[in-house]
Amino acid sequence: MATKMKHKFELYYGDFKKKTNIMVLVAIILDSQYKLRFVKFALRQLYPYDSGKVDGIFDNVSIVLRHMYDFYVKTHPKDVNVHETCSSNDVIVTSDVFATKNKHYNMFFEEEGNELCGEKSKLEKYLDTPHLKIDGAFDILNWWKERDHEKNFSILTSMAKSILGCNS
């Protein structure tokens, strides 16, 4: 019986990297109690002797999260000015518009992102905010519906509603 159970486990869950739905990990990141660093911690607990596997899965989750965020930024440009102004004369960076005096300079900013401006995206700001310390029950769906979160992290709120199944 144990052999059959192990076979089924391997069939459905055996290789975490290949068989785990990455959206489960993204949902954990969108839970303000855990976020991205908790995912790395949990992976280290799962694979204490395989840092290469931990790094591979973690990098994959990070990439998926950032690609999803970029997708939502492009599909919800009216919702938020994702980045702040870099400099008043040369470059203005918003979610959809890169306006510069020089076409190549503009392409450089598109490729390098807003890191060059010293400003963080709303995603980075969310990830940098302290983890919530909750005593007792926590309703993540209601947390994302709260007005401040909707206002400060509108793109992430849209992502959370889609991923966590909260459409209202």
Compose a concise summary of this entry.
By secondary structure, the protein is mainly alpha-helical. It contains ten helices and two strands; from the N terminus they run αααααββααααα. The chain has a domain at 2-80 and 136-164.
Descriptive report:
By secondary structure, the protein is mainly α. The protein has a domain of 108 residues. The chain is 60% helix and 2% strand. The protein is built from 10 helices and 2 strands; from the N terminus they run H-H-H-H-H-E-E-H-H-H-H-H. Strands 1-2 form a two-stranded antiparallel sheet. About 15% of the residues have low confidence.
List keywords for this structure.
single chain, 168 residues, mainly alpha, two-stranded antiparallel ribbon, globular
